[in-house]
Amino acid sequence: MKTRIDWVRRNCALLSSIEEEFASTRPFAGKTIGTGIHLEPKTVVLLLTLQRGGARIVATGNLNTTQAAAVQYLRERGVTVFGGPTTQFEEHRLNLEAVLDQRPDLLLDNGGDLFDLWRENRYSALLGGTEETTSGRMRLEPLRGELAMPILVINDSPIKQFAENEHAVGQSVLEAYMRITNRITNGQRVTVFGYGACGRGVAANFRAAHAKVSVVDLDPVKRLQAHLDGYDTPRRDAAIASADVIVTVTGRSGVLGPEDLGLFKDGVVIANAGHFPIEVDAKAIASSPEVDRRDLFEDAIEELRLADGRVLRILAGGHMVNLAGPRPMGNSIESMDLGFALQARCLEAVAVGRVDRGDCVVPVPRAINEQVAEAYLKTCYS
Predict the structure, then answer these.
(1) What tens digit of pLDDT does each residue of 16-52 get?
(2) Does the pLDDT at position 85 exceed 90?
(3) Is the predicted pLDDT of residue 127 greater than 90, yes or no?
């Protein structure tokens, strides 16, 4: 029987086409690409596409999103993978250091971890690479002067913003909430922290599932946008206190913590959809003296009973909810095919010298956006 990874490979039309092209052009011949990215079926297809272009791939996963089947599949096909599924920051860092010990020529980073670690133990062979996320871009932008190499930020592509972040993240977060909790959304009050592209998608999908959605954002312009889009934009405390469900998707740390325990509604469900497991301080909340009892349910649900009798539930330990928990699926295949086509083309541009050190932590070049958009539309109308 074929695997889910085989199913994903069959449905990644863009990456299949690029893989065929790369087999001929071999833009990465003689080069090593290092990555620390969610290791799940769609990233497997990306890494094998790069390998077909001549690259030696050295990889590790991210916190609580590495799938054992993906690791095995990659290893069987000659990819060096360090570590396996983990929720421990220390173990994750050691795996990242192991990737950098291989002195890769290009980095495919996801959250800025690898480029940041490279600063601690520099080597001259690094040409540059890509950064997948907004979280990573915010982390790397202040370091441009130290990095001084081409680093193209995939998440700053308009294609990534509307195709993957707005449409696909919204769908996958709603799907994950339903899969993990099996709870109703109709009539529930949902508070979404963050109104970037991902937050817009999360809010829209919960509203489409007949929830009553409020938005919290530090940026008054984003709050105005949410208001004009038809969402309530109450004060932070009121938004927390009224919520049956809270989803954080900000890219920032400490969005919710033990200081908020007095605000939570009895029975609230809390989920993080941001890249790093730092938006909801799940460990500090659970260890608060206000918590009388902790119950762990299968399917990645932790229930905390407070001294005053209120109950709150945290999903997946505060890790990225759409890539954690039971049978994690992540975003749709087609949306990731688009995003990873951008990745492949951007890494190609760095490898062959189409960009230079002046392109340090900058958006995907317009020519690559147009190339990927045209290729996707051809698959729709051919």
Answers:
(1) 999 999 999 999 999 999 999 999 999 999 999 999 9
(2) no
(3) yes
Range list of β-strands (E), 14-156 = 32-36, 56-60, 80-81, 106-109, 128-131, 151-153
Tokens of 176: 């994950």
CB atoms within 10 A of CB 275: 26
Strand order in the sheet with 268-272: 212-216, 189-193, 245-248, 268-272, 311-315, 301-306, 291-297
Query: What is the rounded CA–CA span in Å between residue 117 and residue 304?
Result: 36
Q: Which amino acid is at 311?
A: V
**For the chain, which domains are there?**
4-159+331-381 (3.40.50.1480), 165-323 (3.40.50.720)
**Single-letter amino acid, residue 279:** E
- Coil, strand or helix at 325: coil
Residue 56's pLDDT band, with cuts at 50, 70 and 90, is very high
Give the DSSP per-residue string, 88-111: -HHHHHHHHHHHHHT--SEEEESS
Helix H or strand E segment including 142 = none
CA gyration radius for the chain? 21
Residue 338: name the closest of 20, 18, 94, 4 by CA.
18
Indicate the pTM of the whole model.
0.88
pLDDT of residue 145: 94
Q: Which residues make beta-bridge pairs with 214?
A: 191, 232
For 252, the token pair is 């920032």
94, two tokens:
């050691």
With contact defined as beta carbons under 8 Å apart, do 195 and 225 qualify? yes
- What single string gives the DSSP state of each residue in 194-244? --SHHHHHHHHHHHHTT-EEEEE-S-HHHHHHHHHTT-B---HHHHHHT-S
